[in-house]
Amino acid sequence: MAVTNQEETGLAGEPTRRDMIYVATGAVVAGGVAMLAWPLIDQMNPSADTRALASTEFDVSKVPEGSQTKIMWRGKPVFVRHRTPAEIAQGTKDDTADLKDPQTNFQRTQQSNAQPGKPEYLIMEANCTHLGCIPVGISEPGYLGEYGGWFCPCHGSHYDTAGRIRKGPAPKNLHIPPYIYTGETVVKIG
């Protein structure tokens, strides 16, 4: 049976068998590309051991007033600072200072209205926001900060008692990780 010219082109712009073959072939190719791409995309997800470390719990009562400790969360160090009333007062006073990354002392220690924080405990990632060095704190040898908080020895960034950038090349404050208090003194980070 001979195919007429009218069957090949379709009547009045209607799809032909050839159009349907093109659509079907395109769908199969798109499905094949997706199946080949999935393992490549999936391998970029965090490994199981990293996902297992997605959160950590710490008893903040172990940190004496006026000192800090470093704990690990997701393979990164985190400062847990038990601030003195003078440090809290200084952080609140500095709320009105000219800040590169404006945040109040209250915002740095309170996670939400439903879950109030404790202003005496400052929990933040221990990575300078400039190039990721670990800043030294008040109670550590080599402290040279001008604002009573932390100093990054790599490039000279100075942070105040609330972990806010005050001087130097760092563009942002020290990052506050997500956390909640699961007990009176136990905090869950992550």
UniProtKB/TrEMBL annotation:
Annotated cofactor note: Binds 1 [2Fe-2S] cluster per subunit.
Entry annotated with the keyword Nucleotidyltransferase: no
Other known facts: The Rieske protein is a high potential 2Fe-2S protein.
Localization per record: Cell membrane
Swiss-Prot/TrEMBL keywords: 2Fe-2S, Cell membrane, Disulfide bond, Electron transport, Iron, Iron-sulfur, Membrane, Metal-binding, Translocase, Transmembrane, Transmembrane helix, Transport
Assembly behavior: The main subunits of complex b-c1 are: cytochrome b, cytochrome c1 and the Rieske protein.
Domain Rieske residue range list: 117-188
EC code: 7.1.1.8
Lineage, top ranks: Bacteria, Pseudomonadati, Pseudomonadota, Alphaproteobacteria, Caulobacterales
Enzymatic reactions: a quinol + 2 Fe(III)-[cytochrome c](out) = a quinone + 2 Fe(II)-[cytochrome c](out) + 2 H(+)(out)
Protein name, UniProt field: Ubiquinol-cytochrome c reductase iron-sulfur subunit
